[in-house]
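Appendix B, record 7
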Amino acid sequence: MLNKVFKNTGVYVIAEIANKSLPFFLLPIITNYIPPKDYGLIAFLNSFIAITFVFTRLGGDGFITVSFLRNKSINISRLVLNVQSNSVISFVLLLIISFLSYLIYPEIFIISFSWIVLALISNVLNSFTQVQLALYQAKEEPLKFGITQFSMALTNFLISLILVVFVKMGWQGRALGILLSYITIGILNSYTILKKGLNNFKRDSNQIKDSLRFGLPLIPHHLNDWLKKGADIIILTGLINSASAGIYNLSFQLSIIINLIAYAFIRAYTPTVYNLINRILAGENHLKYRLVQNSYLFMVGIFVIGIIIILVLPILFEFFFNDSYNDSIRFIPILTMSYVISSFYLVVSVYFFYFKKTGLLSKLTFFTGLFHVIFSYLFISKYGTYGAALTSLISQSLTFVIVFVISNKIFPLPWVKYLTDLVYEK
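Structure tokens (predicted):
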């Protein structure tokens, strides 16, 4: 079983690297054509996409994954269509809210409303893509997962490259690359899903309600991600300027590489965790040691990779990036370590999802997210851009410690005993 996990992890890692390497390779190119001030506008657009996607997605892909893994005989097409009806309704509501907000408080938007509309359209279509990806993950089909992800990344890369470098559209070209990649791949995936399910579709109010019961409590949890990433961009733009937001955003995009590796492992490992929990609940308690051992191996591996990134990235930076972004280098070590700790969080939060404690997880992570925003404002006011990076490290550490302690109450594991036995045996 573990061999299959490592095999799937390898496929996910390769797919994740291929998927994220294209935007990564694009960074040194577009930063030579887009100044930090305009790069801050792209960061603002990405922040808007991220926060509105929380309310468009509504945790539907997670609900579908859990439902399928718990009952593999379920009518998956019917389930998907019922769950996605929530996303379509949410899209309409967000469009109305955004329009009214733009009319009443236009000063809070530093981009035109046409970008807002495109962002919302891309979100609802991307929700179909995320559902398709969730199904590939649940069915343990990492190759299909990787091809879908890479297709979106390649579309993003090519459109951005053409519009920024050759058409000279500046930040607008990069923004269109991001949005059109979501829209194009989203149309293809929504067509695939709708074609399979429309013929035998039957509205199931129980599935719709169950999806909302699962997803709505997760909104604060997913908002936590935005509060710890997107909110910093908004605060930096407001307190300092969009150039500072652009420089910090570049540091963030380089440092978060460690999270991409972690997510690749978690995608492959989650089905195995669920199967091990099923067996433990059936009486095979010795498997608790295997869960703990795998978790510790993951944490040590991620930490080592983080150290390598900290040592290598500043060297590569001097060769590939425009001098106007040099300030980004000093934020890389602290941001990388904050995402190393964020990766630790992933391996312990999985127990909240299995035991359907998503409401509790949301409360915990939303609390730390609010903590992040408050201290980000205070630290940025006092220490400038470095304050945002420092806040990230503190809040990610706090989140991990709290979630680790509570997860062990939900599903007790021999975390300490495993270490003491390891030392005693030696």
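Remarks on this record: The mean pLDDT is 85. The two ends are 27 Å apart (CA to CA).
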